[in-house]
Amino acid sequence: MALIVALLVAYGTFLLFTAFAYGWSGVGIGPRVSGRPAAARRHAQERLVRAGFGEVRVLEFVAVMGVLFVIGAAVAFSLFGGVLAPLIAGLFAASFPLTSYRARRERRLSEAQEAWPRMIEEIRLLTGSLGRPVPQALLEVGRRGPVELRPAFADAQREWMISTDFGRTVAVLKRALADPTADATCETLLVAHEVGGTGLDRRLAALIEDRTQDLQGRKDARARQAGVRFARRFVLLVPLGMAVAGLSIGTGRHAYDTPVGQLGVAVGLVMVVGCWIWSGRLMRLPEEERVFMPDEAKGLR
User: Fold this and answer.
1) Phi and psi (nearest 5°) for 292?
2) Residue range 56-112, pLDDT digits in tens
3) Is residue 197 part of a domain?
4) Is 211 found in the same domain as 119?
5) What are the φ/ψ torsions at residue 167 (nearest 5 degrees)?
6) 299 domain-assigned
7) What is the total count of domains within the chain?
8) pLDDT in tens, 184-196
9) Which residue range forms the structural domain that includes residue 22?
10) Residues 129 and 70 in one domain
């Protein structure tokens, strides 16, 4: 029975990881739609790059998860013994890289959201007062932008120098940044470049005002969550401290050897993990939907 439970838990972890990293669906061991593993791997690698793990390959990311699983399971086994509790603790420890990925991605998006109003204002001044061409203004501002955004603008600059096709340049930039504000800005500039007209300054000013209001609202929400985020850490620290203290009472870890003790530990661990995930979802700010997504990104979303 323990072996069956272990296999089911391991396969469930595999399904969750492949759904998150590769965008696979279904319960099979591969993607439902054939002919897309290479695109799925490329998509997973792009997500690691956007999260700041550009130097890490997908297989290395999975290997780190495996090591953390072993460490978490070993710690739980030293505390509680048995099979089920180490499995639950190992799976929870293996999820730390995914949590780190999400946290770094949210931090990068937050930094991009703070930078875009200023960058749009610079583009507005360059295309208006100084009369710069739209592609030159966009790439020039990007070269002076935040360090986190510069690699994407460098790729766009390379595409522009090779093809001088602003549509392809914008597509490269949107795919690398994967940010709703970047999508809206790039599409506005692309339309102005292809169609022309005198309304670009007005549209950019409206976009700046909208982005500034959204940024201020998110800052206020994060400020209100500061105390809650600090308290959330006690969801892990307090039960762990109680488990360690329990080792000094009576027969220590042997007190958990009974079936009732193992069941109680498993239920406690599931409740701790569930509360940790639930509280994180409650505090997560809604992400703005991307409207002008590249076609290949839509297919993999």
Assistant:
1) -100, 65
2) 566 777 787 888 888 888 888 877 777 888 888 888 888 887 777 777 777 776 777
3) yes
4) yes
5) -60, -45
6) no
7) 2
8) 888 888 888 877 6
9) 2-94+240-284
10) no
